[in-house]
Amino acid sequence: MKVTEYFEKANGQTLISFEVLPPLKGGSIKSIFDTLDPLMEFKPPFIDVTYHREEFLYKKRTSGYYEKTSIRKRPGTVGICAAIMHRYGVDAVPHLICGGFTLEDTENALIDLNFLNINNVLALRGDARKFEGRFIPEAGGHHYAIDLVKQIEDMNAGKYLDANIENGAQMDFCIGIAGYPEKHFEAPNMDFDLQHTKAKIDAGADYIVTQMFFDNKKYFEYVKQCRAIGINVPIVPGLKPITKLYQLNSIPRIFHIDLPEDLVKALQSAKNAEGRQRVGIEWCIEQSRELKASGVPCLHYYTMGDSDTIRQIVEAVY
Ligand code: FAD
User: Does the beta carbon of 178 sit less than 6 angstroms from any atom of ligand 1?
Assistant: First the structure.
């Protein structure tokens, strides 16, 4: 079933969903199941699976030449989605990115997903590679997520890259996109970012999942701004508990968001790792409760492999 159909059927009830990361190269599907098994009793109707572009490292050899090595490849988003659907009988939402994909690669990925009866996709641009500084698409690939949304919409209309294909199967993908309550870091201002988000909706996207945030006011304000410019699709808040001291630097650096002063102080004054985990859990419980009370369509938790923490939060909220 489509993600938006779950929202409609829920009739105003807040659903929950989880996001998992494919394991690193050499890992196995077991790590995904170990994360999800303890969370499935909360009956998420769908699970998101992220996609990660290959990164390269240049290692200097004794000859003086540099050797290009592929690192951090996380294989198998499509396969993991199929495995999740088979094991748990829920829908899986693969993330599809522009980075590293030609138009043909994207078309083939969509054909594979359609074969597997996966009809939900989160369409994203992806980030710049670490050594590139700015996002560079694959030769002939998409520059922005909106171009990917348009290609998926074309496939939904039975339009393939090869115009000679006759009676090409029409696909029926429900398309999610990313939204940024604290603005996407590359956008010159909030209005610019919102207008480009609206363009993705106008191009056919069906719902928005937000970047994580730790101050609900930012989410509520974002929804207000979206509605004011005619974005009327469901806006799903993305949530992540912060439980470790190093995250006080890494989360703002990686995700370009602010952390509220009270949260920072509470984490800094916790006595030990257990205390910090408690602070993060309590903060996320409070956020979740307020969002749920406001009637959000779904609470979407970024698990990052930490099912114990996520479980304690969801248990307290539902
Ligand atoms: P876009 O919508 O293309 O926007 C990128 C920037 O360009 C924005 O600043 C926007 O304002 C601007 N822009 C958009 N269109 C135009 C235009 N036509 N002209 C000029 N400027 C424009 N990354 C991964 O690699 N894998 C994942 O699985 C993944 N999952 C994610 C899930 C969620 C819920 C979120 C919020 C992010 C996720 N990301 C993932 C990160 C995402 O890929 C990055 O944030 C990326 O930098 C932007 O992606 P986007 O889809 O928002 O891009």
Answer: yes
Phi, psi of 48 (to 5 degrees): -90, 145
- The domain that holds 131 is classified in CATH as 3.20.20.220
* 134, 138, 141, 144: CA torsion to nearest 10: -20
Tally the domains of the chain: 1
* Centroid of ligand 1 to alpha carbon of 185 (angstroms): 10
Please indicate whether residue 126, judged by its CB atom, sits closer than 6 Å to ligand 1. Answer: yes
Q: In the beta sheet, which residues pair with residue 46?
A: 91
Residue nearest to atom 39 of ligand 1 (CA): 126
Q: In terms of residue numbers, what domain contains 72?
A: 3-317
Q: Is the pTM value of this prediction over 0.90?
A: yes
Mutation to probe ligand 1, out of 77, 93, 190, 196 (largest number of atoms < 8 A from CB): 196
Q: How far is CA 130 from CA 72, 74, 157, 181, in A?
A: 12, 16, 36, 24
pLDDT in tens, the chain (318 residues): 999 999 999 999 999 999 999 988 778 899 999 999 999 999 999 999 999 987 766 677 777 777 766 655 666 899 999 999 999 999 999 999 999 999 999 999 999 999 999 999 999 999 998 888 899 999 999 999 999 999 999 999 999 999 888 888 899 999 999 999 999 999 999 999 999 999 999 999 999 999 999 999 999 999 999 999 999 999 999 999 999 999 999 999 999 999 999 999 999 999 999 999 999 999 999 999 999 999 999 999 999 989 999 999 999 999
Instruction: Say if ligand 1 is within 6 A of residue 145 CB.
Output: yes
Distance (Å, rounded) from C-alpha 46 to C-alpha 27? 23
